[in-house]
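Form 12-C: Joint structure prediction
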Amino acid sequence: MKRYIILITMVLFSQLLNAQDNIKAISKIQYEFKHVDDTSQPDNPYVEDVFVLMSQDVSIQKSLTVQNVRNSINDMIYHPKKNEQGMVVFGVPKIDKDASSYEYLNNIKDKEYVLLNNIYDTYYIIDQDYPVINWELLNEQKIIGGYNCQKAKGLWKGRTYIAWFTLEIPQSFGPWKLHGLPGLILEAEDEKKEVSWSYAGFETVKDTVGLINYPKKAIKTNEAKFNKLYDALKKNPDAAFKAAQAASPTGQVMLTNMYVTGFSSGKHKKENYKAKVINNPIEILKK
Amino acid sequence: MSRLLRVYHLIIIAILSVPGVLNAQVYNFNGSVKSTSGIAVSNATITLKLKDASLALGYATTDNTGKFSITTKTEQALSNLVLEVNHLSYKRKQIPVLDNVFRYDVVLEESAALLDEVVIKSRPKVTQNKDTISYHVEGFAKKEDRSIGDVLKRIPGIEIGENGEVKFNNKPISNFYIDGDDILGGKYGIGTKTIPHGMVDNVQIYDNHEHVKALKNKNSTDKVALNLEIKDDARLKLVGNAKAGFGLPKKYDPEVNAILLNKNYKMLNVAKGNNIGDDLSIDVLDLLSGPAVENSKMLVSSSTVSTPYVSKKRYYDNNSGMLNANNFFKFKDSLQLKTNLSILRDKNQIAFNSLNDIYTQNGTVRFLENQSGYKTSNLNSLTVSAEKNKADYYFQDEFRFRYNENRTSSSIFDNENAFAQHLKDRSLIFSNNLSYIPVLKNNNTLYINWKFTANHAPQQLELSPGIHEDIINGGNPYQQLHQQSSISVFSNHISGNYRINKGKINQSYGLTLQSNYQNLKSDIDILEGSYKDYQQGSNDNSLKWQDHSITGTGFFEYTENRIEASLSLPVKSLNISYRDTSFQMKKSKNYLLLNPNVRFSYRVNSQDRLILKYNSDYFIDDITTLYRGYVFTNYRTFRNNENNGLAEQRSHALNMDYNIKRPIEMFFANIAASYSIVNRNVLTSTIVSDNNILQQSNLSYHNQIKSYGINTTLSKYIFPIGTTLTLKPGWSHIQLKELINNDIYSVRYNNYELSANIDFQLFKKIGVEHRSNIRYISNNFRLAGAGGSYQSQKNYNYRQSISVKYAPADNFFINVEGQSIHITQERLSNINIYFIDANFRLKIPNWKADLELSVTNIMNSRSLTTYSINNTSFVNNEYRLNPRMAIFKVFFYF
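Section 2 - Result
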């Protein structure tokens, strides 16, 4: 399960990044995201816990697992937990679902939608088409998590989504790229039932808990370039680490000896499933 | 709103929605949204909804000018509808829709209420529990692994050097803990090699680690420590491993060890031996650098020849045995006691030839040396340490004792003589190191340390029959030259450090009191029937030295967004006095020294970083360059220090480092430029002629060593083949003075170097590593101030190695490595040497055993020849190598 190790090490590096512009979030919604990414294994979807932090004009979606790992690393550094011998222990949360270090930033004021990711200690900003969805409001209603929700239907890049939004929370955000309704989207699913976000809780947030990080010193790039880099890392992490490490002067933080191939923690392996062939992207069409 | 009401509305809607009951009509509502202060509000949401139900019929958001427009098709009567305007910075507003009014200009009241009106009905579930797994060893271990050291190499960020030093993210670890206890101190190399990975549950990395509990949360440290968390079931039992290794010709390599890792008692005991070229002393190297590591100063060496620049295994012809016992006890009230004992016995064969040409104004002087014989070593060390690491104070006392004895017995042929050499040296070191750290009420920290070291190192050199008779014995042959010498050192060191953890600038202030007492004695006797003193004892040294110093240090550190700067400013007041009554020498000198150290780092942009460093140092040589009477520092070199005072030097060094990262292209580069100047007040004079002796003396002469250079590292990940290519080109220039036969030479070096490394996978199964290194040294020298052309020497050195790893089955491993060395020097024949080694391993889990066959030096290269350049001289050495060896090893676990 090399992606976990890659994930953890990447997360580790993101701690080193500082000087970000912060926007204060005022609310937070959590979803369970499911995606049948290999159509030959519909019962073995990608499952990830995600949450969206929202301000008036900006929302950011992050992986809950990644955030937990991040928090535990922050804990280690700023609020160290000690074991019996009085030593600081670096605790990593249990990872029992899929996780991705991508973050999705939506700025409705500037009509800007970007993906954020980091490899080692560098943040990347990956430009996306700004999602404009012409939602059709439907009269159907149901109650989700105590909130009265209304049905809406919209098309984005080849999939038709059914979204359930609530006027009780007047924020026009939602999961991933789905947004633009007069209330918060609590649940969404595409008509083929291959991609879905189910509601897992909403709360308002105060103080600095829910800062929306806006990395300042990030590198702007496009999806093709970033994927090439990311795939290289996945294919031969050892060589990739060596490349990054070789030229670093002493004191620079870099990883070495990354033998990820063949790593299995025994916990994350999905028993009785074969390796996935990713053949079913969320965005089917380019437009 | 009650649920009943909601259901009622749903029914109403359902009824109203039935087509044909009412005709649907298309309406357009538009207007603008402004704040009370008249500013247009953009991104406000306007929802057209039913008056008493939360059902939206249409919606819009305001544009940058605050305007909106909603087109909707509904059967509802307009009087049933409301417009709701939402923006989180303003109070929510509802406006009833009036008949036939389609334009609404809304004014919003500012409010920081945000989402206060929203009722939280279902919070997210509590996030997952944390478990304290850092690196689960099972996840990283591979079948071919044996010790925890093998696994550590695979853990992201961990690197293990050839000497066993563990680094995490390029930083050497500060502590090596086993289940939270620091059992081995700096000699943890034996731990990584011996502890089986099966005993270890997790490897934990403690970043920003502070060992001292009293300092926890006060200091931000950048130390990294490593902990091996032992499995529960492994804590209770005694674990042992045995290795039986035997091979051809007449080779052995056995090992037995016993490990017990209880909570309150831990031990790690190892006995091993070999004659296959494994240097066991590496296992007991103290890998934690710093003042804890002490080595005795030695005046006399057994040879003029340096060790060859290949792996020690290739030439080390040894018979070694070692016992290493480490015991750790934990008592009440957090008192810990540990003992580390190591005893090493070694006998190794010496065999080499050397030719050294020194170019002088009167032609070339050639020295030959052919030495063969053996060296025995007897190294014993004991460390006893007590530690109390409590929340309110920290106390540690460490006592070290070391006794080493080396004897070299060899026969030497130089240009014309054949003689036997016996060199015996002993060294005895005691040291005690006490640290105390109290907890202060404020946030600042205080650190107190007291250390003393006593060291006595006598040496005895015997050359028989006596040589250099024209210098030593008026030209008369004699039976034996006998030289006794010794250096004794006693030093005492007390320091206190106070650190202020407040404000933008980190400050710390230190005060150190230091005293050193040194004593150098030497005496040369001539055996000619009976022993007689060389020059009636008037050459005997009995030099006494004292130095006392007080140092105040200020250290300041400043960090801001892009800038990190630090300044260290030690001010040292030093008094040195020395005397040797037989040379009527008695002097005392005071110094006030300032040795600043500045570091500045600037982040140019997100990817580039510039680091500038400057430091200046004033260094004063010790007793070993001060003695007046002649001493043989080896059988050929006869040295004293004429009439000069203390040898002093002031150095300035400037470094610039520019680091470039282009992660998208996976290209990384580092360019480092350095410049340094060293001004010395003495120069070593060498007098050579054809009489086989090299006389040296330190003379008062101001001279300068200047060096500068650029080193570059370029590394690029090559996407199509998934591999990394690393290139390291470098250039350096050095200028210095050399004094030979009273002629001063200007010497210049230009060194060029290029290293290239590439790793790749063949057919996804075969790992290939290729390393190569090209070095070109051009050396020029001429009489200083004389002008004219330079004499030059050029040396070219090319090394490459290729290693291939293949696992045909998951319990069978093959590793083959080839190495070649190619050296050329002008006017000399080229040197080409090749090595091939192979290693086969088979794991048999059912037997709890491993089988290993290794064949080294398959080409059976018997000697290694090297050419090298040293200022105005040329050196050609030839070393005997270990011949082809086949060793079969069996490992058992119990």
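Section 3 - Comments
The two ends of chain B are 73 Å apart (CA to CA). Residues 14-21, 126-133 of chain B have pLDDT under 50 and may be disordered.
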